[in-house]
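Q: Structure for this?
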Amino acid sequence: MESNGYRWTRKLVGSLSLILVAATVVLGLWITPPDVVQGQLVRLIYVHPPVAWVAYLAYGVTSIASVLYLWKRTRNIKWDLLAASSAEVGVVFTGLTLVTGSIWGKPAWGVWWTWDARLTTTALLFVLYLGYLALRSVPADSHQRAVRSAIAGLIAFIDVPIVHQSVVWWRTLHQSATVLNPSLSPKIHGEMAMTLLLGFISFTFVYAWMLMHRYEIASMQQQVLDAELEQMIQERQREPELEFQRVHVKDGNDQINQPSKV
Amino acid sequence: MEEPFSVSNDSSVPAGPRNLKPRTLPSKRKVRRAWAAVAVVLVAIGFLLYKGLGNSLVYFRTAAGAWKDRAQLGTSTFRLEGVVVPGSIHTTSKGVDFSVESKNVSVQVHDTANPPQLFQPNIPVVLVGHFAGSIFMSTQIMVKHSSSYIAAHPNRVATVNGKKL
Amino acid sequence: MNGYVEAGYLAVLGVLAGYSALLLGRSRKAKKALIPVRVKEKKSDPGPTE
């Protein structure tokens, strides 16, 4: 089980996320100036690129954890649980990237959606990791599932650099990166740049909190599964005597499952 | 070890390989449903790849490129990109007439759809439509705005050139 | 301000809050499911486990 230190860190990260997100919203909606071309619409930049960045980050963590599981020297079911947890949070943020992008696209471009390379590869990213989660839901033993999903997770990650570079490699309606562009020269300044930076930091904190929480859940569920499996093994090994024991001990199994009686 | 089973202890466990097969296998229905979900996702991936290969690789033709190839393009529908030429915009009853330019090649556009709110001179646009002679008949205007952001009230920024807050 | 901007912020905050609530609910459920396991662990293992 996770230590108290883990819980304490999670709570601290959670509180910080709340404060940072609140600050981003206040700065983004009211303090920062409108843009010369986009007017008020520019305010969406403080949320849209940050949630997209978190999706990349989440899938990066999934990939590293997947490699650590596949590598025999570091193999541990914990890496598999971390990979799965991060992928789930990543899917939430990819969904948000698509939704906020669409909401920005309608007034700025004139369309909710268009099949340009950036949008198409991002939709693909969303579906690829939905596939990863669907694959995980296929009943299998822990190791088989871990290997299977680690490979799937690594294949899906190929799309992340493609999404990021799509605006450079192909002609797109979507604009190129404001900060992480090929020349690495930010095209945003002053309080607008500061608020964008704050947006990146705050949603990263939100991700960290969600990942810690999701991982804790996965870890607890795994412990229950392990205990159930252990119990099943013991029951099987005891099979010849089981009936004899039931005569002497009433509902031995029930006592295990109902702590209130103990 | 196991308290609820007071009779049993380790010696009661028969020797030999452990039988790890769980007694309750996941129901066939559950397995089938999970694989069905994977299949649905694979179909979606296929659809996106198809859409991507069909549209994204050459999302638009530049005004200069399209003008050069207009004989080949005929009246086929495609996306055309160019910068709106200042002073060329004339609002019509249905839409707007204007010109777009790329690499010093200017193409006249007759549009029959409402332009989006960011439509203005000097902004790059992507138009959906086809050539009719030397005029591009547009049915949709999409604004391709830049990735630069500049405060509309620069005096609200404490330092000039946006170096510091 | 501009309906789209508000909608964008609402979508982000709404989805994140919704997912957080879901996580908290799942966490509570997982903790509950774990109680019998812990009781059993304590019974079968007299020493400190972790």
